[in-house]
Design goal:
The chain is α/β, with parallel strands linked by helices and 282 residues long. It has one domain (10-144, 182-271): Spore Coat Polysaccharide Biosynthesis Protein SpsA, Chain A. It has helices at residues 10-15, 28-37, 56-61, 67-73, 82-101, 119-127, 149-164, 174-178, 205-214, 224-231, 259-268, and strands spanning 19-23, 44-47, 105-110, 113-115, 136-142, 183-184, 189-191, 196-204, 237-240, 245-247. It starts with 9 loop residues before the first helix and ends in a 14-residue tail after the last helix.
Amino acid sequence: MTALFPQSFDHINSFFDHVYVLSLKRATNRHDQLQKNLKGLDWSFFWGVDKIELNEQNVLDTGIYDDSGHRSLKRTHRSMSLGEIACALSHRGIYQDILEKGYQNALILEDDVMPNPDADAKFRNALVQLPQNWELLMLGYYSEKYAQFFSILQRQVYMLYHYLNIANWQKVERRYIRQMLMQRENEAWYRIGKLVGGHGYAVSRSACEKFIKLQTPIVLQADRIFSHLALLGDLKAYGIKEKIFGLSKMAQTSYIEYPDLVEKISSLSGKSKTRRISKVTT
């Protein structure tokens, strides 16, 4: 597959101190295609942690991953898979690299990313209204909800569940539920609500510091930390209205999941030392 929309990235290149593309050394089938998809963008690979280098007992014994902390933080109580842990470690590694290199900001892409048509022009137009206090910019994301009738009604149901102790919603803070819908900041940006996606986002130094603190040890999936901190009021996070990054066909093959090990990690987690976390996300 070749890039469908050859384009320049002058404004993106000049705005960010560095552009990282997260990949695995063994994901060679993606590397050549990335060179085509991202032609014109100034970027470099960041080699992530591979799940095949981890094992379920070691991540608990060494304190890399806090399963009790994760399950106290999540409403659904599912343990993270080794792939999710490796992915979270990889993103944390980028945050650490940003701080060590002295970058003030950086754009982070995953290796299944695909720039949308006119990405640079859309970014240039959005920059005019970019809030100066930004810490996180979501430039590609999905599963978001907007302030429309059904979503507003759904939010009210979740709040009712919170008060009635239904489906563990009582563990989710009310302010998280109140802020879970995308909110208009201006014509170009939203204040983010509950969303997912780590394939295209930008961070400031202060965001890196907050993410590293939250994720040492790992307690959440890489893209769940964004909404978690933002909806609790601890992060200035904005989503671009005209998304500039989507997913390529390479996203159909995942290097993350090890679903058969999720229950095994859960069964082993009772042997590990854990920290207590009070804030809960969904």
